[in-house]
Amino acid sequence: MPDDIKTLPGAPDGGGMRDTHLADALSERYLAYALSTIMSRSLPDVRDGLKPVHRRLLWAMHQLKLDPAAGFKKCARIVGDVMGKYHPHGDASIYEALVRQAQDFAARYPLVDGQGNFGNIDGDNAAAMRYTEARLTTVAEALLQGIDENAVDFRQTYDGEEQEPVVLPAAFPNLLANGATGIAVGMATSIPPHNAGELCGAALELIRNPQAETVDLLRHVQGPDFPTGGTLVESAEALREAYETGRGGFRVRARWRKEEGKLGAYQVIIEEIPYQVAKAKLIEQIAQLLEEKKLPLLGDIRDESTDKVRIVIEPKTRNVDAAMLMETLFRATQLENRIPLNLNVLDADRTPRVMSLKEVLRAWLDHRHVVLVRRTEHRLAAIARRLEILDGYLIVYLNLDEVIRIVREEDKPKEALMATFSLTEMQANAILDMRLRALRKLEEMEIRREHTKLSKEQKALQGLMGSEAKRWNAIAAEIEETRKAFGDGALGKRRTVSGGALPAIAVDENAFVEREPITVILSEKGWIRAQKGHLPEDAELRFKEGDSLHRLVHAQSTDRLILFATNGRAYTLKAEAIPRGRGDGQPVRLMVELTNEDAVLELFVPAEGARYLVAAQDGRGFIVPGAELLAERRAGKQVLVLEPGKEAAVCVPAEGDMVAVIGENRKLLLFPLDQVPEMARGRGVQLQSYKDGGLSDAKVFTRKEGLSWWLGDRVRTETDVTPWRGNRAGAGKLPPNGFPKSNRFG
Q1: How far apart are CA 96 and CA 53, in angstroms?
Q2: CB distance 510 to 228 below 8 Å
Q3: C-alpha–C-alpha distance, residues 622 and 639, integer Å
């Protein structure tokens, strides 16, 4: 026992106590834990792409003879064997690893063929292992190919009672084909799945040209190929950099198409979602954002999936651009996902390091070369043993009588045979073990044919061992067979579309603002409120006693309304600031600076590019652009300059080519609109002259359509307006019969 260890009374042999610093003891033990985690749990081996738990699962299933052509066995039996013989961990983690290898939406090339409920893309868990069954797939069979031919090293299991492979022969490029993820102590790995046919093509390129660079390999490998499909949206430069350094990431988007409906309506169908995204959680996320009004372009979402993904996206309106709608969803949801690349693996010396694409493929090819050499040596040894026995058999047939005599008469026939015919011990034992039926003449011919065949095979294998070029040609032929087996057909067809770097889609920021139709209601006494939706003009509305409707305006919740008052000022109201509900609202004077003497003349939503005719009681007015009526201050903007004691009388849209004005004296005058100047502010020009009274109403109309006005609940139109035509500032004439006594157009 070392001098620094103190013996303890009653301690077993070798037990004792040693003084040491706590920091040293912790670092020593944590380092041991870290190495165990890195090498025996979290990082895959670059040669077969498997972590220990996966390798032990496949080996245990191979031992149970669960080949692709065999029947299924309960997963509980498989997990029990793995846990009891090879993997001293919990059954839940072992079963989870088995389940993941059986899920066709998680593994690009499943290694386990599952029967029963193994979960789904919605994120639901698999059934308990007592209900499910499993066996190996042809891919797993390729990984195990040659394992019984001394292709790899074996080691003792944790209890020393069994043997397990250190690595599998791996005739399939599993590391990149199925990918891997894991978190160790101080390091992690993240490898997305790829297409096996493309990987085999890149490996063959590397055999033909060992100096090939990443750009040469990327002519074969088009990027990750996820089992759930989708569209890869990365530039060629980003792919090259990621595969050269072994670090990077790949953006993958859901694949969608536009499905046309009736009358211009459409819906978006999502047929593939990004890798490692649970469909149910994705729909829940989108529905939550829709409820929070963070996706204003989206109308509805529903899941119509069966065994195939079909998510239906309905736009808010048919005018929404489908590309813009999807762009907003890609930005806000997991319909676009980033898959990291961190090629951190254990190399052939069990050292963790980050490799490039070329280094990973080179390591796999070198492993296949080692496997080929070991299998060839194993086969040569088996052939040598068999030829040795066959040589002994041929001696029997050449000296049959003497052999029979020795066997019958000698006390020690084995030694006598060896001495008489110069046989080895193996040959002598084989001769003594022969059955009488094997002494037929026909059997002799079969032995000679077998001897000739094995001799030829031995010569060919010796030639293979003597030429590195022949060995690499043999490996290339094996890889070509792997490409045909797993790179063609439905299993090998590429699922992820390489979309390249997508062009930027401009998303209008206003698209993210929630819009909804509202009706703004202004009463005669100046109370204002808003209700959802566009109410009809004749809707029943409730007001305070003695109050009534003044203006009813259809608007959107994002609009800005113009309020034009009798003081000649224009005010701007934000629709979102108008109180909602079925109450009385609030006085408009609390929203803008109006005195008790001022009243609201007009309330409207200005149309883009519209102009308006404003005029005062004295008959003076002008045309003002709608943009000039907007004012951000509560005090508004003085538009119409009034004489003392006068008020604004008119603010109407200037849409047409003629102006109709009628005075309190009931005189009607029509003149061209172009006689009225356009101004931003002022008194304007005289529209109509009066001896007594002032302006009652005005209207802009189109001459060809005629002048119309409301008469009760119907509209009357006068097409022949020649009698009332004149020039601006004229006196006018009495209106046609039937014109309202209120002297207003409606």
Answers
A1: 10
A2: no
A3: 10
- Band (pLDDT 50/70/90 cuts) for residue 679 is very high
* 606-746 fold: Neuraminidase (2.120.10)
Q: What is the pTM of this model?
A: 0.70
In which element (H, E) is residue 163 found? strand 163-165
In this prediction, residue 491 carries a pLDDT of 83
Catalytic residues: 131
| pLDDT tops 80 at residue 743 | yes
The domain segmentation of the chain, as residue ranges, is 1-31, 43-172, 255-334, 360-497, 515-598, 606-746
Is-contact 124 99, C-beta < 8 A? no
Per the CB < 8 A criterion, the answer to whether 554 and 534 are in contact is: yes
What pLDDT shows up at residue 26? 82
- Among all chains, which residue has been given the structure tokens 């690595």? 167
- 504 near 498, Cβ under 8 Å? no
Mean pLDDT within 449-459? 93
Distance (Å, rounded) from C-alpha 263 to C-alpha 286? 27
DSSP for 616-648, please give it: ETTSEEEEEEGGGG---STT-EE-B---TT--E
CATH classification of 360-497 is 1.10.260.40, yes or no? Answer: no
Domain spanning 43-172, CATH class:
alpha beta
Q: What are phi and psi of 20, to 5 degrees?
A: -155, 160
Rounded Cα–Cα distance for residues 600 and 566 (Å) = 6
Residue-level pLDDT at 513 = 57
Residue 1 is predicted with a pLDDT of 47
Q: What is the pLDDT of residues 466-491, one digit of tens each?
A: 999 999 999 999 999 999 999 887 78
pLDDT, residue 186, reads 80
Q: Is the dihedral of CA 150, 153, 158, 159 positive or negative?
A: positive
Element spanning 279, H or E: helix 279-291
| Residues 519, 575 contacting (CB under 8 angstroms) | no
Q: How far apart are CA 241 and CA 254, in angstroms?
A: 24
Which value, to the nearest 10 degrees, does the dihedral of the CA atoms of residues 270, 271, 277, 281 take?
Answer: 50
The CATH number for 255-334, chosen from 3.40.50.300, 3.30.980.10, 3.30.1360.40, 3.40.50.620, is: 3.30.1360.40
